[in-house]
Every structure is written in structure tokens, then in C-alpha cells.
Design a protein that fits this description.
The chain is an alpha/beta fold and 243 residues long. 34% of the residues lie in helices and 12% in strands. The chain has seven helices and seven strands.
Length: 243
């Protein structure tokens, strides 16, 4: 039970490093019996975070390291919203749908007209393809090389998007093979050797054979001709690097 007592003298007037909290370790496993002044808690947690690297110097990151102040303000103002409650926050859902439609059109998802939104569903993160036949899938979306597209989903991150995409394409390929009376036990996926490691994990988790187009001294992305030569009737997907 947390006790809310009047602050001691050093808590009310002393600086952060002049208070008794500066000589104590921050709690790690259990809630403390007494509260800590918010100013001191903020400063000490911020000091802990200062030991992290600087995002601006992280050249290995594939996430955004800079955003305009206006964007950060919008994000901070939206934090209290429970985004999944579409009835309570319909305009937030509408903004999401605009983003889904823009990304889907970028990857040539079919629509009835230029005024109709591309089909997509749910949450926050990267677009996942529910593809038909052999499709080209990226961490932000897809364009189908087949004849139809079911739609698109939104995941919480690129790893989840890759997992769902690989599993979905495997199931699509298996259903098609079974309908044709053919063996559906040996799917494969064509990848560039420099894809995110989650592609390899997804292939192994869902028992899909990995086939790679390897880099050369002067080429660091997938070679289209080599990738096509790796495709056969058991290919469920291709995952090239597009940048």
C-alpha cells in the first residue's frame, strides 16, 4: 500500500541532487512504499535515458530519427486516445483510412474509381499484404502480380507485418495448390540476401524454404533476372529490397 505523506523538508526545497533520492537506487522490482516528487522522478529517469545512444547518430536504424515539432505535438496530443475505439474517435480512424488508401494506391491496389478508397483495415504500423498468387511484398505495402487482391491490414510494426504477410501468402498458395490437386507441402520464398532478419525468421517459423539472390561487389539489391530464375511452381512470394 502506497503511503501519501506530506513531503519532508528536503523534498520540498532541495534540488534533485540535493535530496535523499539522489543517494538511493531507483526501484527495479517492487513499487516503493512512498511516492517520489514528480520533478525528481522526471529528472532521474531522464538521466537514465541519457545513457542511450543519440537517434540522430544511429545510422543503422530503419526508423525515423527526426520529425517536425508540429508532428511531435500532434503525437503528444493524441496519446490519451484509445485509438481502437473507432466510435469514440471517428476522425482519428478516418485519418488512418486515408493513410491506408494512399499506401495501397502507391502499390497499385485496385479500386473501383479514383474517388473510392482502397480496401484496408485496422490499427497502427506497416501495411501487410493478403496477396494472391505470387506477389511482391514490402514492409510498407504490396502490389500483386496475380489477378486479384483481397485487401490490406495494418500491423503494429514491420516484424509483425512480415510474419502475417509470409503466413498469409503461404496459406493462399496452399489453398490454390490443394484446389488443383497438387502437393502443397513445400512452399518457398524468394529474397534478397540483405532483407531484414525477420524475413528469415518468418520463413523458418512457418516452414517456408528460403531462396536467396545474393549481393555482388557492385550490387546490393535483388537482381530481377536472378530472382525470376529462382521462381518455380512452389514459390509463394518474393520479397525484394526496393530502395
Amino acid at each position: 500500500k502506497i503511503q501519501f505523506n506530506d513531503p519532508a523538508e528536503d523534498e520540498a526545497v532541495a534540488s534533485v541532487y540535493g535530496s535523499r533520492f539522489a543517494a538511493q537506487d531507483l526501484p527495479q522490482h517492487e513499487m516503493p512504499e512512498r511516492e517520489m516528487p514528480k520533478e525528481i522522478a522526471y529528472r532521474m529517469i531522464r538521466d537514465d535515458l541519457s545513457l542511450d545512444g543519440s537517434p540522430m547518430l544511429n545510422l543503422a536504424s530503419f526508423v525515423t530519427t527526426y520529425m517536425e515539432d508540429e508532428v511531435e505535438r500532434l503525437m503528444a496530443e493524441a496519446l490519451p486516445k484509445n485509438f481502437i475505439d473507432y466510435e469514440e474517435y471517428p476522425q482519428t480512424a478516418e485519418i488512418q483510412n486515408r493513410c491506408v488508401s494512399m499506401i495501397a494506391r502507391m502499390f497499385n491496389a485496385p479500386t473501383q474509381s479514383e474517388h473510392v478508397s482502397a480496401m484496408g483495415t485496422s490499427a497502427v504500423g506497416d501495411l501487410v499484404a493478403r496477396a494472391s498468387d505470387t506477389s511482391i511484398v514490402t514492409q510498407t505495402g504490396y502490389r500483386s502480380s496475380g489477378r486479384d487482391i483481397d485487401g490490406a491490414d495494418i500491423s503494429l510494426g514491420s516484424s509483425e507485418a512480415i510474419m502475417l504477410g509470409v503466413l498469409s501468402m503461404k496459406r493462399r498458395w496452399q489453398n490454390k495448390r490443394k484446389a488443383e490437386g497438387k502437393d502443397s507441402s513445400k512452399p518457398n520464398i524468394i529474397m534478397n540476401a540483405t532483407v531484414q532478419v525477420c524475413w528469415e525468421k518468418a520463413a523458418r517459423y512457418f516452414e517456408v524454404e528460403e531462396r536467396y539472390s545474393y549481393c555482388t561487389e557492385d550490387r546490393y539489391v535483388i537482381d530481377p533476372e536472378e530472382a525470376v530464375n529462382l521462381v518455380d511452381e512452389n514459390t509463394s512470394a518474393s520479397a525484394p529490397l526496393l530502395e
